[in-house]
Write a structure and sequence with these properties.
Largest sheet: 4 strands, antiparallel
Low-confidence stretches: none
Radius of gyration: 27 Å
Helix content: 40-55%
Shape: elongated
Mean pLDDT: 88
Length: about 230
């Protein structure tokens, strides 16, 4: 761009004629950055909402308790399955990068090999997520509107058992987690007696956890799973 003697601005030929790549980035790369930025904003919105609701609630389900199961009926393995899913996802991300690198080198066999591993990794992740959702919905009955996972806000002793891991007379402390089980298709919150604090001696029942926990979990993981599915 230049200015002539009359003070008028002249535009260099070709500047606005198309064909110029902003920041020397190709069209495909630019669109990918647009996609990644929009995706980041979406997930940031979900996570900000999660954080805001979390700090506004008097109690919140403990992830170590909620996500403590493994396939095959293995219990009391906090966050192990989540760790496995994370590893599978990172592995498939790495294989995708390797496939792109092989593509730049025009190595067809390399692209096919690494893309195949990427598809396997993505499918494995989706399978893990399907098992996780099936367990939470079908076995533990958590939905977007019902959250049977709770956390005690006081210490006490159970006045009845749930037929699973809690027996009559078992004690619990403030901060301990629990799951309200269903019997004959109906939730059965256990009764307990408070043993400490201002309410000592009072009989109460388990309370359901905040609905927002289940809703946010399914929205965030579902949105993520959709991305992986579309990639596969």
């Amino acid at each position: 761009m230049a200015t002539d003697t009359t003070g008028q601005v002249k535009v260099d030929s070709g500047t606005w004629d198309g064909g110029n790549e902003p920041f020397k980035a190709s069209y495909g790369k630019l669109m990918m950055w647009y996609f990644l930025l929009s995706d980041s904003f979406t997930f940031a919105g979900f996570l900000i909402a999660y954080g805001a609701l979390r700090i506004s609630m008097p109690s919140w389900p403990v992830p170590d308790f909620v996500f403590s199961l493994l396939p095959g009926g293995i219990e009391n393995m906090p966050l192990i399955f989540v760790t496995i899913m994370t590893f599978v996802l990172l592995f498939s991300s790495y294989t995708m990068v390797r496939a792109v690198q092989e593509g730049h080198q025009e190595n067809r066999k390399g692209v096919v090999f690494w893309m195949l591993l990427t598809i396997i990794g993505g499918s494995a992740f989706l399978g893990c997520q399907a098992w996780e959702w099936n367990t939470l919905i079908g076995k533990e009955h958590m939905t977007i509107s019902t959250n049977p996972f709770g956390t005690h806000t006081e210490s006490g002793v159970y006045l009845e058992g749930d037929g699973h891991h809690i027996n009559e007379g078992d004690t619990f402390a403030e901060g301990d987690s629990y799951l309200i089980h269903q019997h004959s298709g109906e939730f059965h919150p256990l009764s307990y007696k408070v043993t400490e604090g201002d309410d000592a001696g009072i009989t109460k029942q388990m309370e359901f956890g905040p609905k927002a926990f289940g809703a946010l979990f399914y929205f965030i993981t579902g949105f993520h799973g959709f991305h992986v599915f579309s990639g596969v």
